[in-house]
Amino acid sequence: MKKLLILSLLALLGAAFARAETTRADLLARVESCEAILQEFQARPALAIPPSVWQRARAIIILNQFKAGFLIGVQEGYGVIMVKKASGRWSVPVLVNAGEASLGFQLGAKAVESIFIITDDATPRLLFTQRFNVGVDAKAVIGPKAAEAERFNEEILRTPMLAYTKSVGLYAGATVKAGHISRSDKANFLLYNTRYTLPEMLYSDWVQPTSEILPLMNLVQRLAP
Hints:
- The protein is an alpha+beta fold.
- It has one domain.
- The protein has 7 helices and 9 strands; from the N terminus they run αααβββββββαββααα.
- Strand 1 and strand 2 form a beta hairpin.
- Helix 1 packs antiparallel against helix 2 and helix 2 packs across helix 5.
- It is globular.
């Protein structure tokens, strides 16, 4: 928890001052905070994504958003997307931007941490056209947790995006609309020292992960081999 708070603070400060020059260290903090979010979710039974969902994972998006407005407006954020390749190996984490969420169930929250398990191969490709809206361009519902075995059913598990977020009172299958997710090519150019864009980074082996990126990749690979 302490590590997550520190990493989130560092990364969110970088996002809040986006007009200032962003360093590679800022971007690494974003990746590391996403790893910490996933670790914390899996360590808490009330939040953990069950094996039956991981078995269906074709991609994962981890988002860290913070409330920029009064009440429920969540207007700024960042995250990563990873896809599972035909070989069974997971891609490098590719940075994305997230914003304009209107998450009524997060009333009073200072930050919104979310994980989306994508169960098809088409949804990640929506980012090829720069951005997509969660729950509009791709249907999204709250995913079942380990403690909700009675809510496991094929209809829910076939939904393109299964959402997990730190909230209470939400039941498996509840529809989610969580703003837009967009590409962050400039940030990825700096993070990986490459000119490859999101499609090549997700679906090719042309970009090699650095040591700082491997912990998140290894974690996802263990959860969804």
